[in-house]
Write a structure and sequence with these properties.
Strand order of the largest sheet: 4-7-2-1-11-14-13
CATH architecture of the largest domain: Orthogonal Bundle
Distance between the termini: 52 Å
Strand content: 25-35%
Oligomer: single chain
CATH topology of the largest domain: Neutral Protease, domain 2
Structural class: alpha+beta
CATH class of the largest domain: Mainly Alpha
Radius of gyration: 26 Å
Shape: globular
Length: 568
């Protein structure tokens, strides 16, 4: 057994004190590994940069010699000790859904950031003694005995975030004998009746399509902020959701809350249970390259929203809003012509989740979700409603997850093509592994259920008028995207240029407010790295958008297949 004591002093400094004790088992040398990345975020994170004062002692408190082998691997000379103790401090000052944070109000840990495994001893049990204020409650999916948490093996340890606080709010609901816990940390007023009703509905719907739930309990951990935030991270038996502001989560941001929760719950099957073979098992020391990011996130993005609609939690307007958002993000990203969805997922390890080089890549979230919509509708058409993408995912669950093995690209593709035929094979070739334009295929797919695409103007006026997108950073308006061959591009304006003035006036408030009355031409004062100049731009129609719409007149077959698709 590996024993941890976790404590802190001066929480405003954000340092957490860790003491790790383990038997040597007679080994002359021991290797202690900290993870380089976390499952669910496919980029190297270098968590060891937050470690301070790493020291090691024998049972008599004599210091032992150690050395770093890599940036996150330590080697210890045991000097014939029976057991050794490692002490270190970890800087916990990042609050998101996958990090660590300590202040005067809470201790929040994701063990993958800050806790070690002993090389060749990953399956040992971990016991964590939480030395926290007496009035603090603990939210965790680990086994709990007062302030002692325990879990078997490092893989489950890193999947088990912890929140300790005196302000935790807790509710629960039960589906098929499984308890689902709702934990809220932060200032908010949960409407428990509404939450339990809606969460029960989409949870039942997801379980129905898979036939069973992969684990025996589940926890939603909400980190509620006073500012706008939105982030979720999936784990085997739980998920952490960052959302704010707290006074809006049951109002303006309730759709967002439902969306991210349905998405993360679906991950319990797709990526936690149904796992790519390249991650079976995880290697925490280096990149785990895989091309099926479009399955992990594309299917989950699409299904998370569809399940909200199928279960009656979302109405049509709320559901179609999510599809329009996917379509808008797709059309606003010209990287779709340069790097495929599959290759973009592979390259997550290269440039992570940053915007990166302009128009370089597409996304395994909205772009892949649109591919899954097309595949789903084509399977429904090809099988006359007998099968759907649900059938594909259930087959993956039964043939791989429940048999404790990973799937590969061809496994997913072959099942999809088995049900969907030639047109599904073309979607893979043209849109998942290729960069062919989506729109023609999407229109054909939507016809199956009596939907169409309707043109609309881009509501972002700088995008519509001139073909650029700017955001405010540190009080400056910085251009982040430029449509190739747009008016902006032709006038040699580029990403990272700063907009200083519009028609000679300093920018106050929103740029769109200054543009709404413009009729033909606008003068922009642009600051580049070394120069500043004023450029005239003629108003045009750029970054054109489309939106989903129900056709007014559909036939009986379309109506029947629509009912199969959306359960409505």
């Amino acid at each position: 057994m590996i024993n941890y004591k976790i404590s802190y002093n001066n929480p405003h400094r954000h340092f957490v004190d860790f003491e790790m004790k383990a038997d040597t088992n007679g080994a002359k040398k021991m290797l202690f590994q900290l993870a380089s990345w976390r499952p669910g975020r496919y980029e190297l994170a270098n968590f060891s940069q937050n470690i301070q004062k790493w020291e090691v002692y024998d049972e008599k408190k004599n210091p032992l010699n150690f050395r770093k082998i890599t940036k996150d691997l330590w080697e210890v000379d045991t000097n014939s000790a029976n057991d050794i103790t490692i002490t270190y401090n970890f800087y916990a000052n990042q609050l998101d859904a996958g990090s660590c944070y300590l202040d005067e109000h809470q201790l929040y840990l994701n063990p993958v950031h800050c806790m070690f495994y002993i090389v060749d001893r990953m399956e040992e049990e971990y016991q964590l003694k939480m030395q926290i204020p007496a009035n603090y409650k603990i939210a965790s999916s680990m086994l709990q005995d007062n302030n002692i948490l325990s879990v078997k093996g490092y893989d489950l340890l890193v999947e088990s975030p912890i929140i300790c606080s005196d302000s935790l709010q807790h509710g629960s609901y039960d589906i098929d004998g499984i308890t689902f816990h709702l934990w809220f940390q932060g200032a908010c007023k949960p409407d428990w009746k509404k939450l339990k009703k809606d969460f029960s509905a989409f949870t039942k719907s997801q379980i129905k399509y898979f036939g069973s739930f992969p684990v025996n309990e589940y926890h939603y951990f909400f980190q509620i902020t006073p500012y706008r935030s939105y982030h979720g991270v999936e784990h085997t038996k739980n998920t952490v959701l960052l959302l704010g502001p707290g006074n809006e989560i049951m109002g303006k941001r309730y759709e967002d809350l439902l969306g991210v929760c349905s998405h993360e719950l679906y991950h319990t099957w797709n990526i936690k249970a149904i796992r790519p073979v390249e991650m079976y098992p995880y290697d925490y020391t280096k990149e785990n390259y895989f091309k099926t990011g479009f399955v992990a996130e594309g299917v989950t993005t699409y299904m998370g929203d569809l399940m909200l609609y199928n279960s009656g939690v979302f109405n049509w307007e709320e559901f179609v809003k999510t599809q329009n958002q996917n379509l808008e993000r797709h059309l606003m990203n010209y990287g779709r012509y340069n790097l495929s969805v599959a290759d973009s997922g592979f390259d997550s390890w290269l440039d992570g989740y940053k915007l990166g080089a302009p128009n370089r890549k597409t996304s395994i979230y909205p772009d892949a979700a649109l591919c899954m919509l097309m595949i789903d509708l084509e399977i429904i058409r090809n099988t006359n409603g007998k099968n759907s993408l649900h059938s594909v995912m259930k087959a993956l669950y039964e043939n791989f997850a429940l048999k404790d093995k990973g799937y590969c690209e061809d496994d997913f593709r072959n099942i999809c093509v088995k049900y969907g035929g030639l047109k599904v094979a073309e979607i893979f070739e043209n849109h998942i592994y290729g960069t062919e334009d989506y729109i023609s295929t999407l229109k054909t797919a939507l016809e199956v259920v009596g939907l169409e695409l309707n043109e609309k103007n881009n509501p972002n006026l700088t995008a519509q008028y001139f073909g650029f997108i700017a955001i405010k950073e540190s009080g400056k308006f910085i251009i982040k995207k430029v449509e190739p061959n747009s008016e902006t591009d032709k006038k040699a304006i580029a990403p990272e240029d700063e907009i200083k003035k519009i028609d000679g006036e300093e920018i106050k408030g929103k740029i769109s407010d200054m543009l709404k009355d413009c009729k033909h031409e606008v003068r922009l004062t642009i600051k580049k790295k070394f120069t500043e100049k004023t450029i005239s731009l003629t108003i045009g129609n750029h970054y054109k958008l489309l939106e989903f719409r129900k056709k007014e007149n559909i036939n009986d077959e379309q109506f029947a297949l629509r009912k199969v698709w959306c359960n409505n």
